[in-house]
Amino acid sequence: MKHKKERDSKKGAGIITGIKLVAAVLSVTCIVGWMINTPKLPFIGGTEEGWLGYWGSIIGIVGAYTILRIQLKGSL
Questions:
Q1: For residues 6 and 4, what is the distance between their CA atoms, to the nearest angstrom?
Q2: Of residues 38, 37, 58, the one with CA closest to residue 48
Q3: Lowest-confidence pick of 22-31, 35-44, 60-69
Q4: pLDDT digits (tens, 9 = 90+) for 30-57
């Protein structure tokens, strides 16, 4: 019974860490997007195509990481 509680608490901690990571990525993205659209900040630039590439990279990394975790979990 003790092992089940430990496993459940580790699983809960992993979910919370994942949520924090997603929140951090979204927050940084929103801040950078706001900075790009602010005309008083000329040192930061970007286009819609650049942002599309950025999001494509982020989604690709998250997808690759998820697939890696699933495959490693299956092989253990």
A1: 5
A2: 37
A3: 35-44
A4: 887 777 777 776 666 667 677 778 878 8
Query: What is the Cα 51 distance to its own chain's centre?
Result: 15
Tally of CA atoms within 13 A in the half-sphere of 14 that contains its CB: 7
Q: How far apart are alpha carbons 3 and 49 in whole angstroms? A: 49
Total residues belonging to the chain = 76
User: Residue 31 has which token pair?
Assistant: 């801040």
pLDDT for residue 19: 85
User: Can you give the pTM of this predicted structure?
Assistant: 0.47
